[in-house]
Amino acid sequence: MSSWGARLADGAMELLVLPSYSAFGYGVRRRLFDWTDLSSYDLSGRVVVLTGGTSGIGLAAARMLAAQRATLLVLGRDQAKTDAVCEEIRRTTGNEAVTPLIADMGDLGAIDRAAQAVLQRHDRVDALLHNAGVLNSERLTSADGTELTVAVQVSGPFLLTVRLLPALLRSPAGRVVTMSSGGMYTATLNPGALEMDAASYHGPRQYARAKRAQVTLNEVWAERTAGTGLRFHAMHPGWVDTPGLTRDLPRFRRLTAPLLRSAEQGADTLVWLAADGGAPATSSGRFWLDRRPRGIHRTRSTRASDTPARRGELWRWCCERVGWADGLLTLP
């Protein structure tokens, strides 16, 4: 098929959603665009920090990155589980440079300590991959009182990025990649209502609001670090069969089971964004699905909500929540 025909087929799937997000869409695009096999990348000497790397998409990504010889720090909240995962990956890949890193992404103090541990071991970080996520059926809060979904997926990753920013800037090809979700298409940008209260709490809607904040922050980070060489990317993995999906959205999983992607398929674009020297290394602020950039809006309501004022409000909320004075760090 010609490149024009491939783009037309890709666009048609994206418009229809269901084939785009399914395993079918993944398989078709892989053939249409003749993807580079992930096993061909050599990440020897590159330091990668991966959150949420002990199950699902994160575990699949950790195995791929280790097989590519990356110096990999797998961040998990459970010591025993994270240790066991790292031991299994070292054994199966032969890569001894796979290290556990312990922190709950909803605990700002633990994130600070984990970042310090990274900086003590490594003078630079080549890729920071924000993959940890949570979807709760009832409202829970982090130690600092932030709604837990928002803490794990917005303020926690923001703090880890801030703390590792000097090391990321020292990398000749530094990049930060955030695992978002197609659920963000249903949510408007409204920092004042980012955290749902107990009376109106709805897990999937809260999750969508956090994911909308993620893709917006990805663009804001890219704008604020323009000219430094550091790249920011967000992505959507498609509909993936993970333990989290079974636990949090059992009805959706039953309905879509024949269409779901494997964890390895869901991790493909995450690993590609971390490893590839083409578009991921020369662009910043994009949102990706299946190795191609996508828009972050599908409806007028979300587009209308995405104003400079609200973007600034979200940035200030993050800075205040993690205790970072905006502008304190002077970028080169």
Structure, explained:
- The protein is α/β, with parallel strands linked by helices.
- The chain has 14 helices and eight strands.
- The protein has helices spanning 3-16, 18-21, 23-32, 56-67, 79-93, 108-121, 148-169, 203-224, 243-248, 250-256, 263-275, 279-282, 300-305, 308-322; strands at 47-51, 71-76, 98-102, 127-130, 175-179, 231-235, 286-289, 292-294.
- Strands 3-2-1-4-5-6-7-8 form an eight-stranded mixed beta sheet, with helices on both faces.
- The radius of gyration is 19 Å and the shape is globular.
- The mean pLDDT is 94.
In short:
The chain has 332 residues and is α/β, with parallel strands linked by helices.
> Helices and strands: which structural class?
alpha/beta
Rg calc: 19 Å
The overall average pLDDT, rounded, is: 94
Order of helices and strands: HHHEHEHEHEHEHEHHHHEEHH
Strand segment count: 8
The N- and C-terminal alpha carbons lie at a distance of 45 Å
Strand content: 5-15%
What's the oligomerization state? single chain
Helix share, percent: 40-55%
